[in-house]
């Protein structure tokens, strides 16, 4: 399939240094790769001649940019959206979330995942990193909706024996599907023992998989891990050999400078979840300091039960504003740096640096079209500032993943949303009433 996005404002995210650049031009896609990105009419003419069958998208008044990458979520928790709010984290988990999850079936998880992916696609997310149960059952669903994903099979000490075989099955199902990768995902250092963390690390190494884990999210976690193991979560995980460039660490709120240096030196991806951290009052992650010290920082939504949505545009705005407020520094985490967290940095987190998060020849064709003709996006003094500080998920008009149109005119191709909503409502009612 060939696609041409013409007459567009293009934001390639391939700037030299820290300066963004946009231009009026076109983007051409052939099969699943970007064939050209240019302001030169001759390049567009050459593409049209070589691909006379290409679908043409007239993008006057619109922005073409890379799709967004959500590096930490629990997408199937859409079923628990607004189910348990305004509750401290440990009570929230023990009294509400984990009992709800114990009543879910694998089919329920697939249903919640479908709703989550629909929300993400409509909001311009083309890649996401998930952490949940029954991910082996979600491979086919992810494939059908056409999004790109890294599916982390979540385990605790209590369920590791059933999850480890699921990881192998998920890896087998994902083999040959370039859009889908599998990861090993122990929940946290306070819910998984050192022995079982090692087992997960060894399995990931044997299968060549990424790892993901919640790290230093709350002060309660800090206290529990110190009492049990005599070290902070970061130092504890580092001593176990768990931290490297294939590790995604969610939250990392309570870390000191030495721990930030450990994360940076090991190449760990820090997945910053500002809205979830704010809602549960976990604290403010020192993102600006992490970036200064060379850590790879990304931004993510966390689950739609602790956020309560999967809107990456809101997350970008919050991430930037929160650092400025916490540091009393209006220069902290400027707009373009924030946008990099959700594009080029997210691509690195997924092991796809240079292939995702950018628009350039040869990169994978994951892009979105944002309608700039909205009152809250006018005037256009600075397109990047408008995206980060004013943009909304509903501004996304078209979404392309792997060279295929997945959202067009804000409609998800091949998905009946009213039917999905009915199925979700029925499942939630059954789960809540199950004894």
CATH T-level topology of the largest domain: TIM Barrel
Major beta-sheet overview? 9 strands, mixed
At the first level of CATH, the class of the largest domain is Alpha Beta
Q: Briefly note the structural class of the backbone.
A: alpha/beta
Helix content: 40-55%
Number of helices: 16
From the alpha carbons, calculate the radius of gyration and give it in angstroms.
21 Å
Q: Please name the CATH architecture of the largest domain.
A: Alpha-Beta Barrel
Index terms:
16 helices; 435 residues; TIM Barrel; alpha/beta; 17 strands; 2 domains; Urease, subunit C, domain 1; nine-stranded mixed β-sheet; single chain
Gist?
The chain has 435 residues and is α/β, with parallel strands linked by helices. It is 40% helix and 23% strand. The chain is built from 16 helices and 17 strands.
How does this structure look, described?
There is one protein chain. With 435 residues, the chain is of the alpha/beta class. The chain contains 16 helices and 17 strands. It is globular, with a radius of gyration of 21 Å. Strands 1, 2, 3, 4, 5, 14, 15, 16 and 17 form a nine-stranded mixed beta sheet that branches. Strands 6-7-8-9-10-11-12-13 form an eight-stranded parallel beta sheet. The longest helix has 17 residues. The mean pLDDT is 96. It folds into two domains: 122 residues, Roll (Urease, subunit C, domain 1), CATH 2.30.40; 282 residues, Metal-dependent hydrolases (TIM Barrel), CATH 3.20.20. The protein starts with a strand and ends with a helix. 40% of the residues lie in helices and 23% in strands. α4 links the parallel β7 and β8.
């Amino acid at each position: 399939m060939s696609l041409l996005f013409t007459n567009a404002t293009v934001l390639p995210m391939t700037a030299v240094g820290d300066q963004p650049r946009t231009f009026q031009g076109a983007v051409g896609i052939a099969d699943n790769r970007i064939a050209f990105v240019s302001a030169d009419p001759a390049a567009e003419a050459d593409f049209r001649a070589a691909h006379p069958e290409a679908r043409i998208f007239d993008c006057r008044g619109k922005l073409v940019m890379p799709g967004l990458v959500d590096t930490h979520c629990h997408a199937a928790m859409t079923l628990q959206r607004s189910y348990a709010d305004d509750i401290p984290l440990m009570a929230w988990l023990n009294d509400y979330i984990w009992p709800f999850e114990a009543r879910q079936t694998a089919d329920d998880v697939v249903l919640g995942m479908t709703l989550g992916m629909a929300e993400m696609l409509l909001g311009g997310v083309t890649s996401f990193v998930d952490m949940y149960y029954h991910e082996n059952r979600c491979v086919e669903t992810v494939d059908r909706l056409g999004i790109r994903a890294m599916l982390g099979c979540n385990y605790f000490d209590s369920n590791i024996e059933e999850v480890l075989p699921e990881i192998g099955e998920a890896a087998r199902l994902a083999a040959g599907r370039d859009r889908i990768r599998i990861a090993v995902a122990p929940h946290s250092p306070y819910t998984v023992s050192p022995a079982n963390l090692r087992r997960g690390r060894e399995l990931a190494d044997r299968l060549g998989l990424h790892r993901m884990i919640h790290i230093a999210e709350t002060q309660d976690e800090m206290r529990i891990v110190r009492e049990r193991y005599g070290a902070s979560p970061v130092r504890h995980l580092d001593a176990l050999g768990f931290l490297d460039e294939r590790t995604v660490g969610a939250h990392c709120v309570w870390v000191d400078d030495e721990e930030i240096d450990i994360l940076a030196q090991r190449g760990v991806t820090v997945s910053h979840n500002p809205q979830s951290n704010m809602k549960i009052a976990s604290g403010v992650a020192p993102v600006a300091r992490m970036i200064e010290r060379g850590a790879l920082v990304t931004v993510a939504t966390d689950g739609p039960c602790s956020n309560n949505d999967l809107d990456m545009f809101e997350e970008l705005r919050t991430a930037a504003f929160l650092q400025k407020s916490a540091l009393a520094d209006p220069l902290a985490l400027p707009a373009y740096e924030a946008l990099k967290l959700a594009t080029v940095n997210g691509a690195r987190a997924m092991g796809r640096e240079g292939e995702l998060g950018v628009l350039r020849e040869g990169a994978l064709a994951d892009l979105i079209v944002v309608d700039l003709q909205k009152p809250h996006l006018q005037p256009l003094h600075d397109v990047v500032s408008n995206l980060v500080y004013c943009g909304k998920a509903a501004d996304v008009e078209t979404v392309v993943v792997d060279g295929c149109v997945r959202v067009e005119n804000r409609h998800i191709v091949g998905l009946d949303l009213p039917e999905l909503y009915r199925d979700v409502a029925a499942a939630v009612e059954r789960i809540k009433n199950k004894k």
